[in-house]
From TrEMBL:
Entry protein name: Methyl-accepting transducer domain-containing protein
Compositional bias per record (Basic and acidic residues), positions renumbered to this chain: 20-31, 48-74
Record organism: Bacillus safensis
Composition bias type Polar residues, residue spans: 75-84
Disordered: annotated segments: 1-92
Length: 104
């Protein structure tokens, strides 16, 4: 199992270095990148110390990474369920903004 956790640790460290390189090249969403880096570094420590299995580590990383998106999705749902007169923008704008469309 030690070889397996070492391989996982190396893969995670490689992921961190790739994210840091992307950050250096001026990628937007640097706050999100930093969250991913912190989560991945935490995962490296957990795997190396034997606290977590790979599945637990992967699940923990996914929860930390996707949490901000889930919150914004809930906020959109709340706005859709709010009466039109109390929304901060017209219903038409909200409808256009939330529809998925394809452009040729």
């Amino acid at each position: 199992m030690a070889n397996g956790s070492q391989a996982i640790s190396e893969d995670l460290q490689h992921g961190v270095s790739l994210i840091e390189k992307m950050d250096q090249h001026g990628r937007k969403n640097s706050e999100r990148s930093q969250t991913v880096i912190r989560s991945t570094e935490d995962a490296i420590e957990a795997v190396e110390s034997g606290k977590h299995t790979l599945t637990e580590t992967k699940t923990a990383i996914e929860k930390k990474i996707h949490m901000p998106r889930d919150k914004s999705k809930n906020q959109q749902e709340n706005l859709r369920n709010t009466p039109a007169e109390s929304r901060p923008w017209p219903k038409r704008f909200l409808t256009l903004r939330t529809k998925q469309t394809c452009f040729p």
